């Protein structure tokens, strides 16, 4: 596969930093290599920023804030819609870039691009409604004074995203940040910077004023850490691993910044004996193998009620053997490679540890031998509940199954994790579905449904999976500051107001 052939002619591959409305090399002139995970070949070299570039980008965002924060909701909405239309116009190119850089099958990449468009359109609608809402009066127990509450942009915000859903995780932060009137320094993953650089080009064409959005490619230590530490950054919105999220929080503490964190997961799917087992097998397979299992929301812990356990495992095994793993651009391919070598090696270690811990390997699917970071979809049963396979986020195409005997046991085992991002319940008993959903410590619960996420709803989890929520009005609420203004009523004499005798 020749990457160059995939880039439609006339649209250059962006490889520089986007700061203050200009494309420029990193100050130190350094570059980093971007690799195609299907071939292990270099796709491009992009600028590798460091603390000096971070400072330039933050200063540009701080300057741009002066006018951007005073724009109307309607003006921001118009820009957000222009971005959505720009993404739409380059749908095919963006999907190809996603598949090339991340390794996901083209159909999945197209779904991601659709999600990005829907997110910008949704926050355009919310931005529009801001002009109507304005400052709101608050009823207070005083006839002398009246109080108003208004929401104002927090300032320059740092948005830091991972490599598993490039552009989607970005859109979930960028659209509400712009709607709220903040200016942005965005740091994509060093592993998948190409889609975000293309998005920057779309923002530029859509007419986003210079400095309002700045995009810095580079590593976590050289860009992410100084960005979080920068004194002019007001808030940080981070999606990534729990370990790095904790580091971000510690760094942000030095300058007392607010943080929004979307971190790891180890989610459960619970299949009751009354479930439609064909549906259950489809939901389990999708929850484990979509995006090659590289999902924070992967439902990689499968809990099945004992009477139907063998039947479900048999259906899963059949699906595992049928998954076509290969070149994400090839017709019929359902699963691509993992996105980078580090993740590939990590997943192989988990599989070896699972075998050593006594988990029963039911079946491994097939995958190309390489080059490329291809991993066979893998199904374990009887996975010990204290094994790393059961307890840690694998972030690869590995499903672990355990049986349960009672509803109470299923809920207890599902909740027995430090994470709490999502869960799925499969049952034909509607009352049980609702009851179990209420008991689960998870920010999102799907009942008999695939992992659909609508921008109008919410995203985020309990425990170590998240701080805050993205999407819906909650995603917007992350970016403004709240201001109270208290004033005397005109009829109240000054002496009375300040309490003079
Ligand atoms: P990661 O934590 O290694 O990196 C995420 C981002 O943080 C990257 O841009 C990286 O360069 C940057 N970074 C690294 N060190 C930093 C530091 N010290 N300061 C600031 N930034 C730093 O995560 P990853 O491997 O890219 O992504 C996989 C993880 O992301 C998984 O744990 C997954 O569950 C999680 N994730 C969560 C969600 C969610 O919505 N909860 C969504 C997608 C991915």
UniProtKB/TrEMBL annotation:
Species: Paraburkholderia piptadeniae
GO molecular function: betaine-aldehyde dehydrogenase (NAD+) activity
Active site: residue positions: 262
Keyword Oxidoreductase recorded: yes
Recorded family membership: Belongs to the aldehyde dehydrogenase family.
Pathway(s) this gene product operates in, as recorded in its UniProt entry: Amine and polyamine biosynthesis; betaine biosynthesis via choline pathway; betaine from betaine aldehyde: step 1/1
Name of the protein this chain belongs to: Betaine aldehyde dehydrogenase
The Aldehyde dehydrogenase domain, residue ranges: 23-485
E.C. number: 1.2.1.8
Enzyme class per UniProt: oxidoreductase
UniProt key word Oxidoreductase: yes
Keywords per UniProt: NAD, Oxidoreductase
Alphabetized InterPro entries for the sequence: Ald_DH/histidinol_DH, Ald_DH_C, Ald_DH_CS_CYS, Ald_DH_CS_GLU, Ald_DH_N, Aldehyde_DH_dom
Pfam families the record matches: Aldedh (PF00171)
């Amino acid at each position: 596969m020749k990457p160059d052939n995939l880039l439609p002619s006339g649209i250059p591959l962006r490889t520089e930093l986007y700061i203050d409305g200009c494309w420029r090399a990193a100050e130190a002139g350094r570059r980093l290599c971007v690799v195609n995970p299907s071939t292990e070949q270099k796709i491009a070299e992009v600028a590798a920023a460091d603390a000096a570039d971070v400072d330039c980008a933050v200063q540009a965002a701080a300057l741009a804030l002066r006018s951007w924060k005073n724009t109307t909701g309607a003006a921001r909405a118009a820009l957000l819609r222009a971005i959505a239309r720009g993404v739409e116009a380059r749908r095919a190119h963006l999907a190809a870039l996603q598949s090339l850089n991340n390794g996901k099958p083209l159909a999945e990449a197209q779904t991601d691009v659709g999600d990005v468009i829907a997110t910008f359109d949704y926050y355009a609608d919310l931005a529009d409604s801001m002009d109507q809402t304005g400052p709101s009066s608050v009823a207070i127990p005083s006839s002398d004074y009246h109080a108003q509450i208004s929401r104002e942009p927090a300032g320059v915000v740092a948005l830091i995203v991972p490599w598993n859903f490039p552009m989607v995780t970005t859109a979930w932060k960028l659209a509400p940040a712009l709607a709220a009137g903040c200016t942005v320094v965005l740091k994509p993953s060093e592993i998948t910077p190409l889609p975000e650089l293309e998005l920057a080009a779309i923002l530029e064409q859509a007419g986003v004023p210079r400095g309002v959005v700045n995009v810095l490619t580079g590593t976590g230590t050289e860009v992410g850490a100084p960005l979080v530490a920068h004194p002019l950054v007001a808030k940080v919105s981070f999606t990534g691993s729990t370990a790095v999220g904790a580091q971000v929080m510690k760094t942000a503490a030095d300058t007392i910044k607010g943080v929004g964190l979307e971190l790891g997961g180890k989610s459960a799917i619970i299949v009751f004996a009354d479930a439609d087992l064909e549906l259950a097998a489809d939901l389990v397979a999708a929850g484990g193998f979509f995006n090659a299992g590289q999902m924070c929301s992967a439902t990689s812990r499968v809990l099945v009620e004992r009477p139907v356990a063998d039947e479900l495992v048999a259906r899963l095994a059949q699906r595992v053997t049928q998954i076509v793993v290969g070149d994400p651009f090839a017709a019929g391919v359902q699963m691509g490679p993992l996105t980078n070598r580090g993740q590939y090696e990590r997943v192989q270690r988990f599989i070896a540890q699972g075998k050593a811990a006594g988990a029963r390997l039911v079946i491994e699917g097939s995958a190309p031998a390489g080059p490329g970071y291809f991993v066979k979809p893998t199904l374990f049963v009887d996975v010990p509940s204290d094994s790393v396979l059961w307890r840690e986020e694998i972030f690869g195409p590995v499903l672990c199954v355990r049986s349960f005997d009672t509803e109470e046991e299923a809920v207890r085992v599902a909740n027995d994790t430090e994470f709490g991002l999502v869960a799925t319940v499969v049952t034909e008993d509607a009352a049980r579905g609702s009851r179990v959903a209420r008991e689960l410590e998870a920010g999102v619960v799907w009942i008999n449904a695939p992992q659909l996420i609508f921008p109008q709803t919410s995203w985020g989890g309990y425990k170590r999976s998240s701080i805050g929520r993205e999407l819906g009005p909650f995603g917007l609420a992350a970016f403004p500051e709240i201001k109270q203004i208290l004033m005397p009523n005109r009829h109240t004499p000054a002496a009375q107001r300040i309490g003079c005798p």
